[in-house]
Specification:
553 residues, 3 domains, 25 strands, globular, Alkaline Phosphatase, subunit A
């Protein structure tokens, strides 16, 4: 029998949920809120899917679990690499409950790839995840079972690469949104069908399932319901103005299905990793860094050397047949001159650069940490950080008013062995309606988004609701942070809370009466799997899809 069930609504926001409930919709979510406690759930900093879910599952801050974005900085280089579940697997609620004898299962939870063994159950990984193959499931044979049950290959998400979420086009192609909507809803309905079947086939003590189409629809369809957005159009609203609400209706179906299958006597939680809102403007941070004299780069176009192979070089001068005759010798690498016309990070002159951007933040080019660092650790580093803080505070938006409304210095906020992997400075612009972009060569600092696919972005205000035995009906939880989730849920189901968890136990969930029990055992090591999580081809495909969603440039 299930002892605790969670339905995650990726990007779920009370800004959408409450008006729909007031209009008589979302009956299953409304019932959980009415019969239990509910309120806003503050997301992680930054409010992005990977750090939010990692913090939710572990009760730790990103400095402890090491996830700040879909990628992580590779210290000692200027590069980044995809993150995966090995950062925290073993410290998560599924692993913890498994060590205490609970069976557990997870369906579509972000940051669970590669899927790791859970006691007596299964795991179907969520993003970032390869969209094909059986590596998305544990045990692996579950993928074939899912495919057979659905009558087609189970897909964990859409490939967003073709949708080019950050590309402004001469005109909005409204047909592509219809294709995307249909694909998103098909994937979510397949997940709903399969989740019901596996709840019946293999019930477990702990169960978590995450609805993702809410988040994707808010990213791509926000402007069609928001008449203040620069990309709104009458035709767009007529075609797609109800898509986001349709996604929440599907999420409500998932909540109702799970509650029907596990029964009313089981505590059920409905929560989100972050909220959502409009996304109207880009901030071209590289231009700003250059204007401030913090970043120096070589201007394109210029001549450089490119690497190719002998057969290709012969083909370029009309001797392709000769290249074929060479056989394996045609693969011999050679260098050839070429003109570099498109600007990118490879053009940065690191020896003259004091700061650069990555992962929505700003990094200081520190000696001994970066390969060609110029800023001394210590006092010079602190002065540089303070200087950039001051400059961000003075940054004016298109209306001439200050646009930066929060600045976070990472070493004053994150703690733990991974704290040094965060960008040195994180900042928010215009309530997150404006986001930094790493694109180069913009003629302006700010630009409105009109025909770009992505028109909605995250907010800090997510949602939390819990109902079940011992939960006071109609209660409100305030000031709850996403790191509080796992400690609070453990307490709510009578399990001891590890001392090493950083989140607070929200005792008001149980009316404030019960004293928590503490687990004094040491913090477990992370990383249940050793090999590289993604192949080179999988990495390339996932990165292209994340670019389509606007997370990478």
């Amino acid at each position: 029998m299930t002892r605790l069930a969670i339905v995650g609504i990726d990007g779920g926001t009370l800004q959408v949920i409450r008006p729909m409930i007031a209009a008589g919709e979302l009956p299953h979510i409304a019932r959980v809120m009415r019969e239990g406690v509910s309120g806003e759930l503050e997301s992680e900093r930054p409010p992005i899917t990977p750090p939010a879910w990692a913090s939710l599952l572990t009760g730790l801050n990103p400095g402890r679990h090491g996830i700040y974005h879909f990628v992580r900085r590779e210290l000692g280089t200027y590069g980044v690499k995809l993150v995966d579940s090995r950062n925290f697997a073993g410290k998560d609620i599924l692993s913890l409950l498994g060590r205490r004898g609970w069976s557990a299962s997870s369906f579509g939870t972000p940051m669970t790839y590669p899927p790791f063994p859970v006691r007596g159950g299964y795991m179907v990984a969520g993003i970032p995840v390869p969209l094909e193959g059986d590596s998305m499931c544990w045990p692996r044979e579950m993928k074939a079972e899912l495919d057979a049950f659905l009558g087609r290959p189970y897909r964990p998400d859409v490939d967003f690469a073709p949708y080019e979420g950050d590309v402004e086009k001469p005109a909005d192609d409204l047909e592509r949104y219809g294709r995307l909507r249909d694909e998103l809803f098909q994937i979510e309905r397949d997940r709903l069908r399969a989740a019901r079947e596996w709840l019946r086939r293999k019930p477990t003590d702990f169960y978590i399932n995450v609805v993702t189409c809410t988040d994707r629809c808010q990213h791509y369809f926000w402007k069609f319901q928001d008449r203040r957005h620069p990309g709104w159009s009458e035709e767009g609203e007529r075609l797609y103005g109800g898509v986001i609400r349709d996604a929440y209706r599907l999420a409500d179906e998932m909540v109702g299905m799970v509650r029907e299958e596990v029964g009313d006597a089981v505590p059920i939680v409905v929560l989100s990793d972050h909220g959502a809102g409009t996304f109207t403007r880009d901030f071209f941070v590289n231009r700003w860094l250059e204007e401030q004299g913090l970043l120096v780069r070589r201007r394109v176009p210029y001549f450089t050397w490119g690497r190719t192979h002998l057969a290709d070089a012969l083909g370029r001068v009309g001797l392709r047949s000769v290249g074929r005759l060479l056989g394996p010798l045609g693969r011999v690498p050679i260098w050839r001159p070429k003109v570099k016309r498109v600007a990118d990070a490879r053009d940065i002159v690191w020896e003259k650069t004091r700061a650069f951007t990555t992962m929505y933040g700003i990094c200081i080019n520190v000696k001994g940490r970066e390969p060609k660092g110029v800023i001394e650790p210590g006092a010079e580093y602190e002065r540089t950080v303070a200087d950039i803080e001051s400059r961000l505070g003075a940054l004016a938006g298109p209306d001439g008013k200050p646009i930066v409304d929060r600045v976070l210095v990472s070493n004053q906020f994150y703690t733990g062995p991974h704290a040094g992997e965060a960008p040195d400075i994180l900042y928010g612009l215009d309530g997150l309606a404006c986001l930094p972009t790493e694109f180069w060569d913009s003629p302006v600092l700010f630009k409105n988004r009109r025909t770009a696919g992505i028109s909605g972005q995250h907010r800090f205000e997510g949602m939390f609701a819990m109902a079940g035995p011992g939960i006071p009906p109609g209660g409100t939880v305030t000031g709850m942070h996403i790191q509080d989730t796992t400690p609070t849920l453990l307490h709510a189901v009578g399990e001891a809370v590890p001392r090493w968890m950083e989140g607070r136990i929200r005792t008001e969930i149980l009316g404030g009466a019960a004293e928590p029990e503490w687990d004094e055992s040491p913090e477990p090591a992370a990383g249940l799997l050793g090999a590289e999580a993604f192949t080179a081809d999988e990495t390339a495909a996932i990165e292209e899809s994340l670019r389509g969603l606007g997370y990478l440039q």
